[in-house]
Amino acid sequence: GAVVSQHPSWVICKSGTSVKIECRSLDFQATTMFWYRQFPKQSLMLMATSNEGSKATYEQGVEKDKFLINHASLTLSTLTVTSAHPEDSSFYICSARGRRVRMGYTFGSGTRLTVV
Amino acid sequence: LAKTTQPISMDSYEGQEVNITCSHNNIATNDYITWYQQFPSQGPRFIIQGYKTKVTNEVASLFIPADRKSSTLSLPRVSLSDTAVYYCLVVRGWDSNYQLIWGAGTKLIIKP
To answer: Which of A43, A91, A112 is opposite residue B87, by nearest beta carbon?
Structure first.
């Protein structure tokens, strides 16, 4: 079945530094990638959607200059949290969808970001 | 405003059948319904997807009434390992123009 690999699974960084999270579709071409963040005991909050080769579309309230999303190929998307602060600490999850739109959305395993 | 509503939590016992219902009163004609399971500190995992009537796979069934204003995820003979959060997702639209309407999740606790 469809597999999405997300790395790293956890990261601790200092306040003010940037962190990059990678999301790869291993056995299908991800025409669309989604990035979510999830706070403890809360639902998934969609941050942005990116189509391969296009600029990401950000949800209302999400700072595009802070959360840089790149979807340069059909198998790789990255989320860079720039100038991270403690309030950016969260669980970040990517999701991908292929050309077969009825295949559903495949999620990565998530990245636990802790900013100290 | 499109919205999906599901119970915050449910308890059940091993071996029982569990039904989790999601309300989506404003579902549109082309919307379809998907359910996901999430364990702590993991990404959600696809369970089942449907448009109308009944869909069954090896792990669950999905019942959608004719008016499609709700959907029920049915988990047969649950075990302790089914303790997780279950999310209802209504997908609106097609191709590059769509909207994802997530429920808040139902925390299911299975007791021995």
So the answer is: A43
Residue A8: cis peptide before it, omega within 30 degrees of 0: yes
Residues of A in contact with B46 (CB under 8 A): 104-107
Which is more confidently placed, A1 or A16?
A16
- Residue by residue, DSSP assigns B18-58 as EEEEEE-TT--TT-EEEEEEE-TTS--EEEEEESSEEEE-S
Label residue B8 exposed, middle or buried (CB < 10 Å: 0-12, 13-18, 19+).
Answer: exposed
B103 vs A43: CB contact, 8 Å cut-off? yes
Sign, CA dihedral A109-A27-B89-A69, equals positive
Neighbours of A30 (CB within 10 A): 29
Position A71: which residue type? Answer: H
Asked if residue A103 has pLDDT above 80, the reply is no
Q: What is residue B81's three-state secondary structure?
A: helix
Q: What tokens were used for B3?
A: 């919205």
Percent of chain A at pLDDT > 90 equals 71
Instruction: Say whether B46 and A102 touch across the interface (CB within 8 A).
Output: no
pLDDT digits (tens, 9 = 90+) for B61-112: 999 999 999 999 999 999 999 999 999 999 887 655 678 899 999 999 999 9
The alpha-helical segments, DSSP class H, found in chain B are none
Per-residue pLDDT reduced to its tens digit, A43-87: 999 999 988 878 899 999 999 999 999 988 889 999 999 999 999
